[in-house]
Amino acid sequence: MKRTRSEADETRRRLLEAGLSVFLERGFDKASLEEIAQRVDMTRGAVYWHFKDKLALFEELVEQRLGPAREQVESLLKDEEIPPLQNITSFMKTVLHLLAEDEDYRTGQQLLNKCCTAVPEVSSRYSLWQEQYLSELEQLYWQAQADRAVMAHVNPRYLATFTLSVVNGISRHMLESDDSVAEKRRMADQMVFLFMRSLQ
User: Fold this and answer.
1) Distance of CA 178 to CAs 24, 26, 111, 174, 175, Å?
2) What is the pLDDT of residue 190?
């Protein structure tokens, strides 16, 4: 019997959820399509009907969970209507608040942390995202220096690298923390406040 579109979509959704669990438990290398299929009482053939291979399933999981947030963050960095330091503050808080509050974003980051180094295609894409953030932050720091809003004796590229390193470090801590959402937000806001004060 021919399946309806809604049935196919539901099958795809279940396979993605099973894939997420298996990748988080075993990492990319040790995960298998057979186990993913078994988690939802399906065959490997069902997986291949929806996904070209294990990498395709993994990449869709990453994009599904991180794509919308990445677009939101990139739009913040490119907002020319607000002062550059406010852009940077908004960027940092948004990333950290997403990590505290958004389950999809958090699991997407956990997925990257668990599997990124084992998947060159995803690792290179993640590096590209980081480089894009660095470039946008560097431009904002150039503008902030021109406005005399931030220390003028430090290379803007170094300031951008420092900013991203702080965000990544706090993010790793938050992923490992059992604190409540409210506590994570408070920590993020105070860390960002202290960081921005250090630039002046």
Assistant:
1) 18, 22, 18, 8, 8
2) 97
